[in-house]
Amino acid sequence: xxxxxxxxxxxxxxxxxxxxxxxxxxxxxxxxxxxxxxxxxxxxxxxxxxxxxxxxxxxxxxxxxxxxxxxxxxxxxxxxxxxxxxxxxxxxxxxxxxxxxxxxxxxxxxxxxxxxxxxxxxxxxxxxxxxxxxxxxxxxxxxxxx
Length: 146
Fold this sequence. Notes:
Helix content: 55-70%
Radius of gyration: 34 Å
Shape: elongated
Low-confidence stretches: 48-52
């Protein structure tokens, strides 16, 4: 046995003795609870008995005051402009076509996963595929709600 092992063994024996005292005082305690409390007591004594010098607390700094940014009215509403493209304005055009293509791509993925699921033989594989199908279905619903 190494020196550290002997020290740990001695420490544990002291903790068990302390737990025994605690259980005599309070018979409702379980052995595990008593040992836990005994360890807490032994660690508390060890720290207090060492005589370590306490560190001085650092002086508290004043908390910086937070400045709230004012919300502009333009961020809440979206400006659409289909005629002028040379101005720094958010231009929205062709969303319907983008929406349809994204929807068809996702529906194709969903269909291929459904076919894969029919071929899959293991429960784990089927669950994995079903999870992917659920994610794609939620994406399709989001696109439809745009």
